[in-house]
Design goal:
This protein is α/β, with parallel strands linked by helices. It has a single domain, classed as Rossmann fold (3-Layer(aba) Sandwich), CATH 3.40.50. It is 37% helix and 19% strand. Helix 2 crosses helix 6 and helix 10 crosses helix 11. The protein is globular and about 45 Å long. It starts with a helix and ends with a strand.
């Protein structure tokens, strides 16, 4: 009798497990633990001291761990600007024999990372340069070649040109990724109940807007993180997000106030290109 009862109880637990809801793939994660390779890249002596000072606001180790970046990956950094993340990604990817692309409007958008290449071939010499969005003016990242594509605080720039440019950018990103590849997005976050028109001028975007662009291109939202959140950011500045550090476009006017707020409140979204 005991054996029969035990079997029945086991069956009930099994049935309960089967009927339990699956883990929410878009659940928010508070943090991610960086591995030793990411930690070593963040600690690289080749980084610019002024950039290192921004780590407390940008959480690069935790962010790259959340996106799942590995040393042997083919990684594309879109619109790297002055190369803040490039300084971390170059030694990280090189340490595992991977490939790093810097992709931006050809070729003015790559001038500052080209300066890094010229000044430090040991760190940046193997980095490849590509045009994004691709127009034929320069080399492009080959379709289906990237493991990870990363964009940090750039989607609003595509949005300034109108929704069509943003949609095309996401389509091009989708094409360059391998099936199962990852798109990591960090962007200034506009509150969902705020006026969507602010996306055209403030530098902030709604999470729902970026998710819609990504899903329209074929991506699936995998996870969100609050790694780069900043609840002190009121997002109501006349000169937009650039009022805050590091831009501080108001100059000395209320400088202490904006420095105390810190950098913007940012969404951190991980998308996946379906494997099939």
């Amino acid at each position: 009798m005991r054996k029969v009862r035990s079997v029945a109880i086991a069956a009930l637990f099994a049935a309960a497990a089967c009927s339990a809801p699956a883990e929410d793939a878009t659940a928010t994660e508070a943090s991610a633990k960086p591995d030793s390779a990411i930690q070593a890249a963040v600690a690289a002596a080749t980084r610019t001291p002024a950039n290192v000072a921004r780590d407390a606001h940008r959480h690069p180790a935790e962010t790259l761990a959340f996106f799942g970046v590995k040393p042997g990956d083919t990684v594309v950094e879109l619109w790297p600007g002055g190369g803040w993340y490039t300084e971390i990604l170059a030694p990280l990817v090189r340490s595992g024999g991977g490939t790093l692309y810097a992709a931006a409007p050809w070729e003015r958008g790559l001038n500052r990372v080209k300066e890094k290449q010229a000044a430090d071939a040991a760190t940046y010499g193997t980095m490849k340069l590509a045009e994004f969005p691709a127009t034929g003016a320069g080399p492009k990242v080959a379709d289906g070649s990237a493991d990870v594509v990363l964009t940090f605080r750039n989607v609003h720039n595509w949005r300034f040109g109108g929704a069509d440019k943003t949609a095309d950018a996401f389509k091009q990103i989708f094409a360059m990724l391998k099936p199962g590849g990852t798109l990591g997005v960090v962007e200034h976050r506009l509150d969902e109940d705020d006026d969507a028109a602010k996306e055209e001028k403030s530098g902030y975007m709604k999470e729902s807007s970026i998710i819609a662009f990504a899903e329209a291109a074929g991506f699936k939202l995998a996870k969100k993180s609050e790694i780069n959140a900043n609840p002190k950011d009121t997002k109501d500045y006349e000169k937009g997000v650039w009022t805050l550090p590091p831009s501080l476009t108001e100059g000395e006017t209320d400088r202490a106030k904006y420095v105390a707020i810190g950098e913007s409140d940012r969404m951190t979204l991980k998308f996946v290109k379906p494997a099939s």
